[in-house]
Amino acid sequence: MKEHATKLALIRILADGQFHSGEALGEVMGISRAAISKHIKVIQEWGLDVHRVQGKGYRLAAGFELLDETAILAQVDCPSLSLVPVIDSTNQYMLDRIGQLPKGAVCLAEYQQAGRGRRGRQWLSPFGSNLYFSMYWRLDAGVAAAMGLSLVVGLAVTKTLQKLGAKDIKVKWPNDLYYQDKKLAGILVEMSGKAGDAAHLVIGMGLNLTMTNTDPETVGQPWANLAEACQPMPDRNQLAAAIIAEMTETLQRYEDVGMAGFVDEWDQYDNFLGRPVKLLMGEKVIRGIARGINPQGALLLETEQGLVPYLGGEISLRKGD
What we know:
The protein is of the alpha+beta class. Helix content is 29%, strand content 28%. Strands 3-5-7-11-10-9-8 form a seven-stranded mixed sheet. A hairpin with a 2-residue loop joins strand 12 and strand 13 (284-293).
């Protein structure tokens, strides 16, 4: 993290959204104006929109609140919270530490250099625009008991956002949150464990908050920000604390009741319930009407062959034509 210390200190100054001259920044940081300019270029590459105006200096297009470990822990009981501002991937950070982490441990980041989504896709992770989050959870019931985990995590985050004032947030099987048919968040559950042993799970989430300058082609599909669904926006530390609390409570409940205990809730928030959809399974496309999920977390699709469950694998759900 030492390699990024100067850039992070610079971001903390610029986060107020005000102009700061290169000379003044150099004096505060103890480096030259030329060095300031080089650091500015890097943080622009990280996704921060920094403007330079002759005679005024540098400023961010909009001020923002940095994540603060102390502020988060003042709002929620978490057994281990790691705030790593610049990271390759919050999920990988946790996976590398399985065996050292207490159940419910969390990693948060401001910027992911190698964020990843489902099926190895890149997850776009500009600095400070979103929430990048991973939690470690141990399931003593084993790997088979984890089948519906991404579904209940989606419900937990949806309910959190609703409590904080967001409207029209929905879940999409098996691992996304939607707002008005656009992707708001993605969930990636990665697992290790042998048959008959406990499952070690890392549950990652990327939640769009105020991301800008990104077209749907770059992301790969239409996307939305929480700022569109929630006014006023909760502060990022409040949001992080609320998600940690709800996820912890939901995962504890999941251990007690399993996926069967969440079927009715899923139907309540299901973005595609009763709508025409298509299921992509490799080269195969299956069309039907989405009818929710079964007690195992399988998608129920009404097709010409009747009501058919689909579970896991290389399956993608899309809105019907």
